[in-house]
Design a protein that fits this description.
CATH superfamily: FAD/NAD(P)-binding domain
Organism: Halogranum gelatinilyticum
Helix content: 10-25%
Distance between the termini: 27 Å
Number of helices: 5
Oligomer: single chain
CATH class: Alpha Beta
Largest sheet: 7 strands, mixed
Shape: globular
Strand content: 15-25%
Number of domains: 1
Keywords: Flavoprotein, Oxidoreductase
InterPro entries: FAD-dep_OxRdtase_2_FAD-bd, FAD/NAD-bd_sf, Ferredoxin-NADP_redctase_2
GO molecular function: oxidoreductase activity
CATH topology: FAD/NAD(P)-binding domain
Structural class: alpha/beta
Order of helices and strands: HEHEHEEEEEEEHEEH
Protein name: FAD binding domain-containing protein
Radius of gyration: 20 Å
Length: 296
């Protein structure tokens, strides 16, 4: 079964001094993720949890919603409704601090004063601790969004990257963005995740690649980071070690509280069938979202 990816605990400490509401109003972020499919949403979970202010700009619906029943994603022995799965992933992104905006990115350009001299050659890192936004995105019917880093995960639209000089391979009606194997494109600060980078269609591959690209970006940003892991109390400290950046130790009371909360949340998600109508390819039905007629 093919599960295509892209679109069309508490929130992490933000790296920006601005509250989320003010960031949303001013349109300034550390990370702009273009595309709210599996790869993009997963990337946003990791960057937000690492303390990078993150916004996901999405146009339309992820192709994964066309799946009749997602049956090959680990952790769901009997499969999961693809709409429910996507809703849950979006909620996880929001819960961890990412903002979400509906709109189509029409162009991404360098911010005023960025001369592009940082374009990557070979294996140069993308680190830049100046704090200034390097890129400005034009979002249709929304306005401008500025960011230090960009993660492109919008299948199959890559036209908005043309002005940056990112290397793109045309393959008939599809376009693929070249990367170094870890998601770095030929332009410093611009990354690509999921199907747009010519990875496999499966949702689990898209999720894994989104996470990998996000971790690459986090390391390149020079944010102190070991890995994202919640450990039992004493796991590090009882061995005379400091808790590494990105990790957390919790005691048994807190562990049980989080377990109970996760159980309650999952029970609520799975208490009723998902209300949305099944999607199919839009060319097959008279509905722009590809929704099938109700069977009742």
């Amino acid at each position: 079964m093919t599960d295509d990816d892209d679109t069309t605990t508490e929130a992490s400490t933000e790296s920006s001094d601005e509250p989320a509401s003010e960031r949303h109003a001013t349109g300034r972020y550390d990370v702009l993720v273009v595309g709210g499919g599996v790869a993009g949403l997963t990337a946003s979970v990791f960057t937000a949890r690492a303390g990078l202010s993150t916004v996901v700009v999405n146009d339309g619906e992820p192709i994964v919603r066309r799946n009749a029943h997602l049956e090959n994603f680990p952790g769901f022995p009997a499969g999961v409704n693809s709409n429910l799965f996507t809703d849950m992933l979006g909620a996880q992104s929001t819960r961890n601090g990412a903002d979400h905006v509906e709109g189509r990115v029409t162009e991404i350009r360098r911010a005023s004063g960025d001369d592009g001299e940082g374009d990557r050659e070979g294996d140069e890192r993308a680190g830049d601790d100046s704090g200034a936004s390097r890129f400005v995105a034009d979002v249709e019917d929304v306005g401008e969004v500025a960011a230090q880093y960009v993660v492109a995960s919008s299948w199959a639209d890559a036209d908005y990257l043309d002005g940056l000089g990112v290397e793109i391979r045309d393959a008939g009606s599809k376009r693929y963005v070249d990367d170094d194997g870890l998601g770095r494109t030929t332009v410093e600060g611009v990354y690509v995740a999921g199907r747009l980078s010519e990875r496999y269609h499966q949702a689990i591959v898209a999720a894994g690649h989104g996470a990998e690209v996000a971790i690459t970006l986090i390391h390149d940003s020079e944010v102190p980071y070991y890995h994202d892991w919640v450990a039992p109390e004493g796991y590090f400290t009882d061995r005379g070690r400091e808790v590494p950046p990105g990790c957390e130790e919790i005691d048994e009371t807190e562990r049980r509280a989080r377990e109970r909360e996760s159980m309650a949340v999952m029970q609520e998600y799975f208490s009723e069938p998902h209300p949305e109508r099944q999607r199919t390819h839009p060319s097959l039905v008279d509905d722009e979202l590809g929704r099938l007629a109700d069977d009742e």
